[in-house]
Amino acid sequence: MSGRVDQLVVNGPTRLSGEVVVPGAKNSVSKLLAASMLAPDTSEFSNVPRIEDTAVTLDICKSLGTVLEAPRDRSLRVATNAIISSEVPADLARQNRLSVMMLAPLLHRTGMAVVPGAGGDRIGVRPVDFHISAYRKMGADVEIQDDAYVLRSDGLSGCEIELPYPSVSATENILMAGALAEGRTYIRNAAIEPEVIEVALFLQKMGAIIEHKVERTFVVEGVGKLNGAVHEIMPDRLVAATIGTAALVTGGDVFLRHARQRDMLSFLNTVRKIGGSFQIDSEGIRFFRDGPLRPIAMETSVHPGFMTDWQPPFVVLLTQASGMSVIHETVFEDRFGFVEQLKEMGADIEIYDTCLGGTRCRFAEKGYRHSAVIRGPARLRGTDLEIPDLRAGFTQLIAAIAADGESRLTGVEQIDRGYEDIDETLRALGASIERCEAASDKSALQAS
Ligand code: EPU
User: Which residue's alpha carbon is at the smallest distance from atom 32 of ligand 1?
Assistant: First the structure.
């Protein structure tokens, strides 16, 4: 991390209103860059987001041999004529979750992959056991050396893989592995998030044969060779939904240009159920309030359910609804870390280790605090906040904008990983928000 540590100083409350252009999706571009490395020739991407996470991903690609050009604004031309190392550098691997996605290009093209433990948000244990056991099943030799997975293979073979849970990145990883494997790979209980479908579509453009069957199954017929391809990165439905939520929390009115209804069906349904309003047209989605918010009992789930990443800002939204709401988080076991600080701001929220709201999930009786009861409406007041992870950080920022008085947020680099120029974006919507340099890492931490 660079020596510079930024703080955001927010003065609230403000209603957010105006327009935001939704950039390309963080969680799509990184996987497609990894997929492009399965072929030696050039791929081209447009609508590439300008965020820190993509910068880290590009550093990982470059360290393995990718040569980049940016022919136009937000476009990238990438070519990996030769893979120059089979090892993802540990310092880069720690900075996001991409390293494990390098298994397929490294193994297929060099016969070996050394992948250190990944970083990313602290929202649960986040193991990569599904990925590793799939590669084992496809014939790779796996060892663990100095905290890194070392895989060797002289050719992966297709097989039947049933995922214990529909993991997004494991499904994407196996799609990539299967594309160049010998024979057919079946991925059952696969994730079907729009970002996963983008990987399948991009691989198909590269020359892969991938069928999407009903009931969460992909069938990948291995081909001998893939080519480069051209692709526009899908709009970021996490950015769209979370800024839409910010508009609703503050009683504002924001148009999210390029937001796509088809990627946000369950989000939009839930907004409607609690009394929020939206209007959809061919250019995007406008979020606004024209009445009071109602409480709800809901749970997060894999696609097509309500995404886990939409949950933290929705908690703030439900602090503004009249009555008691319940949220059961079923995707990540530790995704309510931001709640303590919201409580300091005046929110009435209790976290439980039981499955509240009906469904018994994987976290039942394991002691994970994964259900929340929220009572509203609450009047929020500004305070000093330390950001724990990306979506939680954006959540705290929304709370600060809606709260009375000044809030100081440290750990802003977490938000910068996934949101473009967030302070400028929110200022343009009317928020009073300034970025300033905190004196040093130490004082920034002490400020929290
Ligand atoms: N899991 C395992 N073993 C594995 C893989 C996953 O137990 O080998 C478990 C996880 O611990 C979790 C569940 O399966 O409980 C789902 O994890 P998944 O693999 O689907 O998540 P991911 O691929 O690591 C991506 C996004 C997340 C998003 C989730 C769910 C990227 C880089 N990250 O994570 O986005 O929340 O899918 O949709 O694509 C974010 O952008 O802020 C973010 C956290």
Answer: 27
Q: 206 near 193, Cβ under 8 Å?
A: no
Residue 148 Ramachandran class (φ > 0 left, ψ -120 to 50 alpha, else beta): beta
**For residue 36, how far is its CA from the centre of ligand 1 (angstroms)?**
21
Peptide bond into 13 cis (omega under 30): yes
Residues 6+ apart with CB under 8 A from 333: 124, 125, 362, 363, 366, 368, 370
Side chain identity at residue 138, one-letter code: M
Residue 315: HSE in the Cβ half-sphere, 13 Å Cα cutoff? 35
Which residues line ligand 1 at a C-beta cut-off of 6 Å?
26-27, 97, 121, 124-131, 165, 167-170, 191, 193, 238, 307-309, 331-332, 390-391, 418
| pLDDT, tens digit only, all 448 positions of the chain | 445 678 999 999 999 999 999 999 999 999 999 999 999 999 999 999 999 999 999 999 999 999 999 999 999 999 999 999 999 999 999 888 899 999 999 999 999 999 987 666 666 668 899 999 999 999 999 999 988 999 999 999 999 999 999 999 999 999 999 999 999 999 999 999 999 999 999 999 999 999 999 899 999 999 999 999 999 999 999 999 999 999 999 999 999 999 999 999 999 999 999 999 999 999 999 999 999 999 999 999 999 999 999 999 999 999 999 999 999 999 999 999 999 999 999 999 999 999 998 789 999 999 999 999 999 999 999 999 999 889 899 999 999 999 999 999 999 999 999 999 999 999 999 999 999 987 654 333 333 2
Output the DSSP codes for 147-185: TEEEEE-S--B--EEE-SS--HHHHHHHHHHHHTSBSEE
What is the 354 CA–ligand 1 centroid distance (Å)?
Answer: 21
Gyration radius from the chain CA atoms? 22
Can you tell me the distance from the alpha carbon of 314 to that of 330, in angstroms, rounded to the nearest whole number? Answer: 15
pTM of the model: 0.95
As a whole number of angstroms, the distance between CA 378 and CA 394 comes to 19
Q: Which atom of ligand 1 is nearest to the CA of 391?
A: 42
Distances from the Cα of 291 to the Cαs of 13, 19, 267, in angstroms?
19, 21, 18
To test the pocket of ligand 1, the residue of 128, 165, 415 to mutate (highest count of ligand atoms within 8 Å of its CB) is 165
Determine the 3-state secondary structure of 319 from DSSP. coil
Centre of ligand 1 from the C-alpha of residue 203, in Å: 21
CA separation, residue 437 to residues 385, 440, 443 (Å): 15, 8, 11
Distance between CA atoms of 296 and 165, rounded to whole angstroms?
26
Tell me, in angstroms, the distance from the centre of ligand 1 to residue 391's CA: 13
